[in-house]
Design goal:
Blueprint: H1 2-45, H2 52-60, H3 65-78, H4 84-92, H5 97-110, H6 116-124, H7 129-137, E1 140-144, E2 150-153, E3 158-170, H8 181-197, H9 202-207, H10 210-217, E4 227-242, H11 243-305, H12 310-340
Helix pairs in contact: 1-3, 3-5, 5-6, 5-7, 8-10
Length: 343
């Protein structure tokens, strides 16, 4: 009997231990779940399909339950069908869940036909999907260029400075893979330069600035971009420099320098030719002097060989003296004749 009483006492102690352990486990579970009670009540009252254990699973999957619950509540209130799994997948992929849901609500109100899959793709592509929806509903104005003006030259050589304002609307279908507004600005600037360059005179541009916008708008510059161009308006047109005259003046100055260089080349060649002629004259004079130096030698040789007598030599000297005297007299007469001429 004593042994049976001891066994019963041991069994009751074990039961108490088990019950205590279960109560402790239940208390820990209540404390753990208490942090999700507010979110679950908020989702339950909003009729969002989020369970209490689903919130626990989000926490274990490193997903912020508060963000998912707020997104689910917003989507349910707006009547947009989204599952918690889709929001969790987008959150884990690094997307902005609240911005995507806000964009879906705005697109649903504006009847743009945007679904969660496309909105998530736009957000993951790095685009601001909410701003894109707002731009699609409320068109945006882009200045072209952002600062300053586009400079172009008409056919008459006058520079024209223009500034345009481009009204664009976001194209939801082309947001993923479409070019940004920098491409729009570059294309519009190129179109303005082309339109002004095809004008006959700058006066045509000043009289009809809308011709620029019509020409540029007709080129379909929004192809391949994330925007749709609604209008292109020329905000300001000014006259710049006379580029044609300046280019002609620069060309004339260049031609003058070329002509001066060629004239200097010809002068240098003439000076060189003159120096060559002077050198040749000096060489010929040297040859004459060498030839005259041979005359006394020839005379001496004639004396030795008997071909020239002393009287022949004196007659030759007399003739030389007479010739020299006549030359001097002729030179003196020429000098007196020049002095006697009236001035």
């Amino acid at each position: 009997m004593i042994f049976l009483a001891q066994a019963r006492g041991a069994g009751s102690d074990l039961t108490l231990y088990i019950v205590g352990f279960l109560l402790l486990l239940f208390l820990v579970l209540i404390i753990f779940l208490f942090r999700f009670i507010n979110l679950w009540i908020q989702a339950y009252l909003s009729k969002a399909p989020v369970s209490l254990f689903g919130l626990v699973g989000m926490q274990l999957r490193k997903v912020n339950p508060a963000v998912i619950v707020r997104a689910m509540v917003s989507s349910v209130q707006a009547g947009i069908p989204i599952t918690p799994r889709e929001l969790e997948a987008h959150y884990l992929a690094g997307g902005n869940v609240m911005k995507v849901v806000s964009a879906l609500i705005a697109a649903n109100r504006a009847d743009l036909g945007l679904d969660f899959r496309r909105a998530a793709a736009i957000d993951l592509a790095g685009r601001d999907v909410l701003e894109a929806v707002q731009t699609s509903v409320n068109p945006r104005v882009i200045d072209c260029p952002v600062q300053g003006k586009v400079a172009a030259m008409a056919k008459d050589g006058i520079q024209v400075l223009a500034r345009a304002r481009v009204t664009v609307r976001a194209n939801i279908d082309r947001l993923v893979g479409g070019a940004t507004e920098e491409t729009i600005i570059a294309r519009v600037g190129e179109g303005i330069v082309s339109s002004i360059g095809s004008s006959t005179t700058h006066k045509d541009v000043l009289e009809n600035p809308d011709s620029i916008s019509r020409t540029v708008l007709a080129k379909g510059l929004d192809a391949g971009t994330a925007f749709e161009i609604l209008s292109i308006d020329i905000a300001d047109v000014d006259i710049g420099e006379n580029i044609g005259s300046r280019l002609q003046a620069d060309q004339a100055e260049a031609d003058k320098r070329v002509a001066q260089a060629k004239a200097e080349e010809r002068r240098a060649m003439a000076v060189a030719a003159e120096q060559e002629n002077s050198a040749e004259v000096m060489a010929n004079r040297a040859k004459v002097l060498l030839a005259e130096a041979e005359v006394p030698k020839a005379i001496s040789e004639s004396f030795r060989s008997g071909n020239l007598g002393i009287m022949d030599y004196y007659r030759m000297r007399n003739i030389e003296s007479d010739t020299r005297m006549r030359s001097q007299i002729a030179e003196g007469q020429d000098d007196r004749g020049d002095e006697a001429q009236p001035r």
